Fold this sequence. Notes:
mainly alpha, 5 helices
Amino acid sequence: MTSVREPGSREDRDTGSAELFGSVLDMARAAKRGDVSGWLTVKSGTHRPEDVAFLSSQMLGVLIENDAVRRGVHPADVWSELRRRGLDDFG
């Protein structure tokens, strides 16, 4: 039977998470600047696109909830607010 690695497991951390983290940060920086070409270059340079996507989602969730706590708002309320307001009001 083939085992499936849980994202965030010790095995996952020991097999290139620093590289994945760097890729995610580089992609985020390029996306924030509107640099689609730079974003695609970083994305295509990784051999683990699913792991990069999962880590990006984890980081976004942490940032959203940390910002909510910093503002004194319950994280569940922020998720609802983001869903209601949509992409146009994000950021």
